[in-house]
TrEMBL record:
The keyword Signal applies. The keyword Hydrolase applies. CDD domains: S1-P1_nuclease. It comes from Penstemon smallii. This is Aspergillus nuclease S1. GO terms for molecular function: metal ion binding; RNA endonuclease activity; single-stranded DNA endodeoxyribonuclease activity. Monomer.
Length: 307
């Protein structure tokens, strides 16, 4: 009986978490891992200005105590639910094999060719929806809480280089290989393996310490001179297209490079890719904060047109 009482007190959100942990989850393909998304969202939330921090707190359900990162993986958990099936193509972009470029007109569509249904279109869409929140002009058809969670999640996905990958191998998902001694695939290496290996080798498996070092590296470390340029953005839509182009470039130069299906990736691959993964997590967080500060802040959202 007690268990039912507890369940009744929990929101849909926490229930969806429980479900994800208790079911065997195939949807774990095609996403920055839980750790990657959590770090991106924590970094972003720490960079919010007061108005944006307040709006985010207002939009989050009570049971997460104002912690955005607790729900940043929610879109991965619901993508196979019937109600949210329309979101499944929004996590990534398939580009033509070996083209190593991103072209919005050519590449941003779902598998049926429906335009705008890719991660760039989604970020534009949810940014646009949220931009009406501050003026109280939000369309009642749109759920602002969901828009925030989708935006936060997709800003993580777009910075995972293999989320903008080749069509035939599904962003590396069909490239089976070994990561050190266990079976994995190239997509998963970038989603999770590199992060977990780093956490285990350098941080005693403590993801919080890893995240703090990433933050230290852009506040006063190796990336401190670069942060302004990461954040720099005159027009959100152009910037988001640029983030996708950065990802496919990294995917070609570092992700797919010299990788053959069936082989074993280990120290050499890890050592040369580690800092790239960390930088993408940092950039995702800094840029998510930039967008949220604009959407909820005082200055005009010139770049976003009203719908
Ligand atoms: C934008 O969001 C609405 C729901 O809020 C959805 O119906 C539409 O398909 C989305 N489009 C994109 C490109 O994300
Ligand atoms: C918005 O979406 C969340 C998560 O799906 C849900 O719990 C909440 O009830 C929705 N709010 C409204 C006003 O529909
Ligand atoms: C932070 O920067 C140092 C170099 O100053 C580097 O050795 C370390 O790997 C970086 N850590 C992360 C998590 O990026
Ligand atoms: Zn995702």
């Amino acid at each position: 009986m007690l268990i039912f009482r507890i369940f009744r007190k929990m929101s849909l959100f926490s229930l969806s978490f429980l479900l994800c942990f208790s079911l065997i989850c195939e949807p774990c393909v095609q996403a920055w891992s839980k750790e990657g998304h959590t770090m991106t969202c924590k970094i972003a939330q720490d960079l919010l200005k007061p108005e944006a921090a307040h709006a985010v707190k207002m939009l989050l359900p009570d049971d997460v105590n104002g912690d955005l990162s607790a729900l940043c993986v929610w879109p991965d958990q619901v993508r196979h639910w019937y109600k949210y099936r329309w979101t499944s193509s929004l996590h990534f972009i398939d580009t033509p094999d070996k083209a190593c470029s991103f072209n919005y007109q050519r590449d941003c569509h779902d598998s049926h060719g429906v335009k705008d249904m890719c991660v760039v279109g989604a970020i534009q869409n949810f940014t646009n929806q949220l931009s009406h929140y501050r003026h109280g002009t939000s369309d009642r058809r749109h759920n602002m809480t969901e828009a925030l969670l989708f935006l936060a999640h997709f800003m993580g996905d777009i910075h995972q280089p293999m989320h903008v990958g080749f069509t035939s191998d599904e962003g590396g998902n069909t490239i089976d290989l070994r990561w050190f001694r266990h079976k994995s695939n190239l997509h998963h290496v970038w989603d999770r393996e590199i992060i977990l290996t780093a956490a285990a080798d350098y941080f005693g498996k403590d993801i919080n310490r890893l995240q703090e070092q990433i933050q230290g590296n852009f506040t006063h470390g190796i990336w401190s001179d670069d942060v302004a340029s990461w954040r720099d953005c005159a027009d959100i839509f152009s910037c988001v297209k640029k983030y996708a182009a950065e990802s496919i470039n990294i995917a070609c130069k570092w992700g797919y490079k010299d990788v053959e299906s069936g082989e074993t990736l280990s120290d050499e691959y890890f050592n040369s890719r580690y800092s790239i993964v960390m930088k993408r997590i940092a950039q995702g967080g800094v840029r998510l904060a930039m967008i949220l500060n604009r959407v909820f802040g005082d200055h005009q959202m010139d770049s976003i047109t009203a719908t």
